[in-house]
Every structure is written in structure tokens, then in C-alpha cells.
Amino acid sequence: MRTVDISAKFETLREAKAYGKIRLKPETIERIKNNQVPKGNLFEATKLSGIFGAKKTGELLPFCHPIPIDHISVELKLNEDSLEVFSWVRGKAKTGYEMEALTAVSISLLNVYDMCKGFDEGMVIEEIKLIEKKGGKSNWYMDLKGVKVKLHCESENLKKVVMDYLRGLKASLSDNAELYISVGENLPMGIELKGLESVIAFYDFANAPSEVYQEIKVGKTEDYLIVILPENEKKIRFFFETFGGILGHLLCRR
Fold this sequence. Notes:
This protein is of the alpha/beta class.
């Protein structure tokens, strides 16, 4: 057993929203409306429980990474026969906030159950679900379907590594290409994409500080988008796993 390795992922702004519902007797609804639940104010206690639940997600679920949380919101809606819970969790991290949002809803509903179990034995918790997530790979990742790539690599082993990633991105090899990938050989560039190179260098240094001298370069000519990779399998894997999904954007693919 192991957690998912997220070391190569971007820290980006991410958020998730979740929903859940608990069925209640009409008498219970009236107690809540009139603040007559013996254990106290159910609305405030339930919101606090959801916030605490979101913060403790990494401790409750063994395979869930503990991640920084910048915002948690828990809202309740009381209906004729049920109480609905909505959660929104937001922050900057390498992985998403789905489990935090779902935990916030789950713990909120459990709190309602705990506060009402003395006078409502027919409660049913149901329909806990994720309703939205933003900011992760699904929002910015783009494959290279339809993109023709020219690859220069002297090492057969490294060539296979690059080819595996290109196949995963759905690219195809061709001499008449728009993306040129060179492993180990520098090529002249008309325009060097300094901003992107700086971002790559930042994440690359965090990933392998002792190998910072082996640079990854990205640039353009009139004919190609050019990526120059060092003859280092670790660096190649880092580049494709971290930045492979944005190559299509650089080619203005939609």
C-alpha cells in the first residue's frame, strides 16, 4: 500500500464543492427551526463540525495527502423533510480538494445525526457526492492528438522513454513536424521562452537541486516549437510528467 506520488505536480489554485442530505421527521425539522435541539444550536455546531472535518481529512484517510487549506465554507438548507449540506474547500496544492469537501459534508451530516438521534430514530444520510472541482490537471491538461513530432535522441533507452510519453500524449512522429524534441543536442531558437523556462527551472530545482546545471530549454522558430532535454532519464520523466500537458497550449491547440 502507498500514497500517490504527487512530487512532480504543480501547486495550483484548486477548489471542490460537495453535497449531502439527511432525511428527518417533520418534528425534528420543527425542533431545528425553533432552536430546540437539547445539545444546542444545530446549525452552528454542524457548520463547525464540517470545517473541523475538512481540516482533519489527511488524518482520517490514510491515503489522502495532508494539504494546506485556504478557505472552507459549509452552508445548510432546511427543507420540509430533510437538511441539505453544501461545502466549498479551496487552496493551493499539488492535489485536489475533493476529499476535504466530501469529508466536510460527511462530518456535518454525522453531527446532525448525533445531535438528533435522541428523538429521531428514522434519520437516513444519503446522496453524499462531489458536485464540482476546479484547478487540477483536468482544467489545464491538453493531449497532443493530431500533433506531429520530430525526435532527435542518440540513446535508444532514452528514446524509448520519450516515445512512451509521446504515445501517452497521443502524438505521432513525422519529419514534417511542428514540435521538435531534442535529447542532448542544443538547437538554435528564434525565440526562447524565458518565462516558461524559469518556471521549469524552479520546479526542476525543487525536484533535483544537485542537477540544476542540466537545463531544460523551450523555444520557437518559424517552423517548430522546440524542447531541448538533457541526457538524463530523471529529468526527461520530470519534464513530461510535470509539463507535458501544457505543450498543446504552447502550440495554440484548442
